[in-house]
């Protein structure tokens, strides 16, 4: 698979967001505000990030 990793950080609160967007953030491994996760750069992860792009910051 891909050796490339991307760092995803939750920068906006989940309060008032759709339930499926909350589930997507949870699926990315993010819990609290400013929590980060180091994830494989795969198409499925990219799609999840795109869905909640207004809530997260992506690096590298």
Task: Describe the protein's topology.
Layout: E1 5-10, H1 19-27, E2 36-40, H2 43-51, E3 56-59
Antiparallel strand pairs: 1-2, 1-3
Task: Give descriptors for this structure.
25% strand, alpha+beta, Ribosomal Protein L30, Chain: A, globular, 60 residues
Q: What does this entry look like structurally?
A:
The protein is of the alpha+beta class and 60 residues long. The protein is built from 2 helices and 3 strands. It has a 3-stranded antiparallel β-sheet with strand order 2-1-3, with no helix packed on it. It is globular. The mean pLDDT is 96.
Mean pLDDT equals: 96
Query: Strand order, biggest sheet?
Result: 2-1-3
Mind telling me the CATH superfamily name? Answer: Ribosomal protein L30/L7
Spatial gap, N to C terminus: 17 Å
Question: Which segments are poorly predicted (pLDDT under 50) over 5 or more consecutive residues?
Answer: none
As for the CATH topology, it is Ribosomal Protein L30, Chain: A
Radius of gyration: 11 Å
CATH architecture: 2-Layer Sandwich
Helix content: 25-40%
**Elements, N to C (H/E):** EHEHE
Gross morphology: globular
Integer count of domains: 1
